[in-house]
Amino acid sequence: MNFTARHLAYLFGVLFLISLAANAFFYQQATAVTSTSDASETKNESVTSLESATSEDTSADTEQVVASKETERMEELTTRATRFVEYAFTITKDSYTTQKRQAKEVMSDDLAATFFDADGIDVGTFETTVRDVEVFPSVSGEDCLVRFEQDLLITETGYEETTQELLALTFESINGHLVVTEMEDLTSEGGI
Question: Is this model's pTM higher than 0.70 or not?
Fold first, then answer.
């Protein structure tokens, strides 16, 4: 019997279909075995975890309290840093005296004297506003990085400028409140 190219094509086609069917069959069996063994492992893990759960309840409660306090500290740090930036870097003719009074809640007396030394500002000379404030609290310690955009408007000439600022803030607890005691401008060191 002479095999032509057509016969060989049919032969390889049939062998290919048989191979696919065998692969599908064995794949389904392997999946079933794997899922069965996963179920028994899960049962073993749940029994083990139930046995150890009672001994770990105390440590889990302690960890939750620590995590809760850490979350509260991070939220307070973020809130205080945001307020610091808003009070220190937003200057309008109507808000200067209010911000000077409010700034004493979020910054040390030395920083308040640096930012708000004057009794007021020249009316109509310039205004600055802050937007897109991002706070990156440190995991260890009482400090954070703050990134924000500051818009400057010189009202006499109409000149406008937007800059991106990056600050490192250090906090201390004074009278039960976190207060910024040091500020370092990181923008001039490479910035964003």
Answer: no
